Here is the input.
Amino acid sequence: MAARTPSRFNRALRGRIGFASLVVFYGAVVGICLVSLIYAGDLSWGRNPWNNLGKSVGEFSHPSFLDAWFGNERLEYRSSDGSLLRVENRRQVETQFLWALVRATWTTLQIATLGSLLAALLAFPLGLLAARNLRAPKLLSRAASSVLDVARAVHTLVFGLILVGIVGLGPMAGILAIALHSMGTYGKLYAESIETLDMGAVDAVRATGASESQVFFSAVWPSVLPQFVSNHLYVWEFNIRDSTILGLIGAGGLGLLISEAVSLFQWGRLGTILIVVIALVTIFDTFSRRIRQALL
Here is the structure.
């Protein structure tokens, strides 16, 4: 008993030293980043940050959707010399924008939903191969892990830029971009869920002479299904946020309206779009939380 105590103490000491070393390394990385930015003069708030903040808050505080009910029905645009250029009914114009916003929101939801489903299907066999405790052939396991690493390393926007050039503008490019990037995330989550299994139960089923497919569906699948569903809901929710910016590169949806609002300095419309994005994510988060609670 006395011989075991120093061994446990040594292991605990090594663990603490290792953790302290990681903390020191992380602190050094943070310090280098700060010093390099300060040295380059890039760590700056810009000119008149508080004045700019006040202007932005003032413009965002009046989202454009309010004009659909309270807007000026005869808004006049005049030149510098006072001559009338055109007259605009703000209520009518904003109502048309809101219908366009509804269509863009539906497109964004389609991109996120179909892209997430395709990613989950593509990642499933790769996650099984990458899980080390399922003892897949080493060559296949390493190949699957490499594919998942590459998919996670390339950002959705980069995939989108490539795919727009291949399949053209529209939601299809967004769906494929979401699928290719999320495939890496799904595969990693699948593999980690499988690796946390109690292999005693799996080996017990295997010892009965069951085939690999029988082992999977009898011992593996029932245990990992709740985690798979939870992971799918989490990545799906993330992709709803991610797909809102794919319109910036021509994939359609809310990103296209965001790009137009920013390029035309229409901060009221941008505020309306952001309200829709926040509401969409909040509703989906509430929906997915209830499903996860039901699986517990």
